[in-house]
Amino acid sequence: MFDEFFQGFSMRALLLSLRSGFTQLSFLGHLALTVIVIITAMIVSRLISRYYRKRGAGTTEAKRIAYLVARNTLGGVTALLLLFIWAGELRTFALSIAALAAAVAIVCKEFFMSGLGSLMRAITRPYSIGDVIELGTMKGEVLQIDFLSTRLLEQGPSGYVTGRTFEFPNMMVLLNPIRKLSHTGRFVHEIVRVPMDPAGNVPRAERLLLQAGETVCADWIEAADAHFRRLESSRLIALPDSRPLAMIEPVDPKRVDVLLRFPCQSNRRLATSQAILHAYYVLAKEPDPDDPLASQQIRSADAPTPPPAPESMAAPIGKLI
User: What is the reported pLDDT for 314?
Assistant: First the structure.
């Protein structure tokens, strides 16, 4: 019986029958099927995300890779279903506007690319209002997003606001990578650097900078760590430790930078980095107890001053003569 049922069956025949069935539907039928497919895909995507978030076995990286594979597979299946549903209408529509689209694309290339950049930004959401981003040589907080352009409030290298604004066409989103400096939300990791001479006391500078960072960030280290751990479980990513970390980075034969990575609130990056630098330079002014020369100077300064010698009661010989 099964042999008779499957006799003459082929995958090509099945696909052709599905395609002919979809093309015979009315516009409202196509629309209803599209809504059903999209809603089903959204529900399945939520279930997949919830499953991998609550899954205890495996590392974070392995769970993230499996989740991305499942999500991309679901997206591909959804796109194929939508293509089958709208195949007939898309063919007719494409043939009717092909010439007009080619002419418009040639004449209004920049306008068209800015529109595509806006569409890409709306779909992928690489940044939104209030985010701090870096695009090429531009760095600042996103103030306004239009259909054709984005406006930034410029920030300097240390995060200070200059008062100037950047405005770039959204087509640059298609052509340049975007660095989002406030990706982790309420708390972020920031870096300060102190340039030094390689012949100087670099280990002491590293130790003092770490001490300054731990002192300044002591009030919110636990809250920042809890925030980063929540992000790890919700986004399936691995974030570094929240405690300040000091590092040494050689720049050239005549310069070495001492770096400190520390957690801070996203809206207080400049204030926190300045507080750490102030605390570091205050500590750096104090003499180093491990330096023999400095210790000798400290002992010399703490030693009691000998009393002045008593003047001789005898009159000077010059006066007697």
Answer: 45
